[in-house]
Fold these 3 entries.
Entry 1:
Amino acid sequence: MGKFYYIARNSAGVKKTGVEEALTQEDVVAKIQDKGLIVVNVIPGGSELFSGPAIDNSIKVRIKPKHRRVTREDLTLFCRQLSTLIGAGVTILMSLEIISKQVASSKLYDTSMDLKKNMESGLSFHEALAVHPGIFSDLWINLVESGEASGNLAVVLSRLAGYLEKDAEFKKKIISALIYPLILTTAGIGALLFLSLKIVPTFAEIFKSFDIVLPFLTQVLVGISDFLRKYLIMLFLLIGIVIFAFQKFIQTKSGRRSFEKFKFKLPVFGEFFLALNIERFSSGMATLLESGVPILYSLEISERSANNLILADIIRKIKEDVREGKPMRASFERSGFFEPMVIQMVSIGEEIGELPQMFKRIHSFYQEYCDTFLTRFVSMFEPFVLVFIGGIIGVMVVGMFLPIFELSKIGG
């Protein structure tokens, strides 16, 4: 005979808890139902699960939250911990109880408690997640629903955690690759402004004391310096207004669509943006299909998850064709968005019934392409910026010393 802790509700919806001794969980469920109660959860081990020293410390001692908002890292860690605990045989309710005390986000703590509360009231896990659409995306909800239906929730959550981890790692690579060029550009612009606002005016005052005609290059530099000193604040305000207007413009559907078309048509970078969107799409599709989500639902989730309106429209058309029984290859080819390699791999995946594996290969290919592109971009950008900034500074130095050369000739 073993002890089982149970959570149940009576006909009025009032929560009832207690401990029953029985051979199996099924026997406990039968005993509780004989009492006229509706079973919510049965946890092997009895009340010691809530009072034992090992679990007691993890549940009752709550780590002080570090921030309010829910970050991508918070959700990734939450998913990984959840998959680990459920895979170890811990119930969802107990897992949420343990994890909630360890999260760094106070909002995620409140959400975890609400998930637990909603599940105790009778909701399934995916239904409880759907109550918080601002935190858990359609990808979360549909994958969890698939895991609950198949009885492989731990496996599905592990795949979701893997997807979130790879996605976060890839975004960190992009940010890390762009930080150095941004710092280099900012430092270069700062040096040019310092020369224009401090050094050039000092030389200009010195040249005024000499009765000479300044060389054309020096006159241009002094004119630029005077303009910046008079209108620099207005120039910054104008740039700010332009940026604000641009942000408002791309917040509209037509503006965002126009900007996306512009990005795809950029020389060199257009191919990168195209590859980036295909990488995100193929990664999501691989995760969804591998977790048992039907193709139509997978396409629907990918459509809603797409950060690109053009790609979202293409996915919607593919979904409509699939619903009508048409092959995906024709839809991919007709879109004009995907390269022949992608079309061919999708076609093979359809024929042999290995679409998830094919989407994984597409994802791996384009992720490697984006990594390589960023590495080459940074390696090429550094010397270009150094030469460009160095050239401008050299021209400014020459322009400032030309009048001195003229004076030396006159003096000689």
Note: The radius of gyration is 31 Å.
Entry 2:
Amino acid sequence: MVHADPPKPAARPEHPPIRGADPGTTRAAAISQAVCEWFGREARDLPWRSEHAQPDEAWAVLVSEFMLQQTQAARVAPYFETWMSRWPTPKALAAAPAGDAVRAWGRLGYPRRALWLHRAAEQITQVHHGDVPRDLESLLALTGVGDYTARAVASFAFGERHPVVDTNTRRVLARAIHGRAAAGHPRPSDLDDMTELLPEDPTKARSFNAGAMELGAVVCTARAPRCDECPIATWCEWRGAGYPDNAPVIRRQAKFEGSDRQMRGMLMAELRQATASITREVLLDTIAPTESNRSVQANRALDTLIADGLVVAAPGGLSLP
């Protein structure tokens, strides 16, 4: 019986010399420099990046990071510009009702982010005199700010040297460093991997953090990576191994269509358009006028919105905060 030969790993072509690199440059340094140079040439023109003048750069970074959670940059950009025009500083947002923030969030999804951002603006105004703090501990104390967001603000707004790892970065690390087709669930070692590649110079570290994210977003994409355009293709372990199908198995998120998440969005859309309080009966009749199963789901979804603080139940009816 004749067995077919296994596929050969992809050839690793000679990589163009990196400008200004020492002949003894390490693999990590070569990857970092290549990403930084690529980012300097190819970075998308996004309104929250430093080349766009903002009244408060740190606030702009914080707002963008809240909006970009589980949301693509193209969807975020118009909302971000409208938001910054209306609330250019934390004090401006803190002075507005929380309901205005939820209403302005529109259809970005996960509207709790708007409520958290409003609370963070209040905290910044009350505790930090209106200035976004730069140290990780103070950033982490803000409502809605987790480890990723704190590191992103410290790096992108203040130039602090911290590893910043999002979903796109993790995919780049998984493929280039570990030879895996996908990243799988977040792991503490992701930060260690990023730290090993992070330049010592804070300015270059900031550029590498942003560049690695950009690379994952536009080149090293999940479904159709453009390896022929990748600045670190030479050093990519996944490419060198012949692109093995070795992605970790991850349970898929439940379908949005017909879910409680969709129902929550429908309820929020009605409340954003309302000019006065709405009774529970009127709101539910609007969303689920006849179907009993849907009415049960609508009641359940409404109760979760009230519990989350996104809807306020008062004697006069329901409204945004």
Note: Residues 1-21 have pLDDT under 50 and may be disordered.
Entry 3:
Amino acid sequence: MTEMVYGAVPPRDGEPILPKWWRTIDTWSMSCILMLFAVGLLLGLAASPPLAAKNGFDPFHYVQRQAAFGGIALLAMIITSMMSPVLVRRLAVVGFLVAFVALALLPFFGTDFGKGAVRWYGLGFAAVQPSEFLKPGFAVVGAWMMAASFDPNGPPGRLWSLLLCLVIVAMLILQPDFGQACLVLFAWGVMYFVAGAPMILLVGMAGLALFAGTLAYANSEHFARRIDGFLTPDVDPRTQLGYATNAIQEGGFFGVGVGEGQVKWSLPDAHTDFIIAVAAEEYGLVLVLAVIALYATVVLRSLLRLMRERDPFIRLAGTGLACTLGVQAMINIGVAVRLLPAKGMTLPFVSYGGSSIIASGIAVGMLLAFTRTRPQGEISDILRGRLS
């Protein structure tokens, strides 16, 4: 689209794909992702042995699985980042349709693994969570719809994307999975804002979300229990939030030492949703701030590169993917430090979980593909030309 509308400087003829990919990729963002994955393995060595012993596995069973899932995720990230935006969009549409059908069939064939929410397909050797793969696909499909509305006589893409978003949110709430529903709604909102949405509409959407939350609190025991646990002034020390809060307090600035933490023996989800509590206890605030800095670097660098992008589809899709990654990390850490209600959401690339890490690898691969340097000039050149 960009080349047809604005024209482009011809690429170097005959340049090998790997040097061209390395020359155009955001190596800082990719390096941050690799460091996050390394931190995840490091924390997995501390957090997962107690669970492995409880389930009768080898002490490093979950670390080995995380390394295997991570290898697949990193391979998917690199391959996807080499693709053109058009190819990424085509594959995202196919992946989105598959994940959408899988999400719709969850009430009939899914399982909750005793956690009270039907979110997974049990495959015996692994479990698949369709919503993890739906998020990046929806960001690309929603951006494609919105970008189409900019074309002369184009379709009402913004309205279509809103209707699709509401259908997905409704299916996620029925599981119930309010955390993923909020992420999908946020991704649509931030893309719509970048696409030029009127503020009154965004305020109305926020009011509607608040109203929906009130209804959910009144009618969903699962939702109400988590909100009540968050609002209560006294945290039960025997709950996951209680264990996590105590671990963060014990860790202090530099932590209690490698392998010396105790929260991993008490938290059932120490290797997944509350992995940051293990990091805070054993390595202290220093490691937590480093993890936050890595996520912030990926998000901010991606947004800065997208600000120079001419193609509205690439700009919208990249913004949705970058902000979803950052907000998911913020929610996970916010839950652990009791700034947000419990959501059951993983920390991308750090928490254990095959669906989460592979889907995150695909999403970041798409983001790196969209933020690659292309011979198109700067968008500021266009703005100056229109003003002159």
Note: The first strand starts at residue 121 and ends at 122.
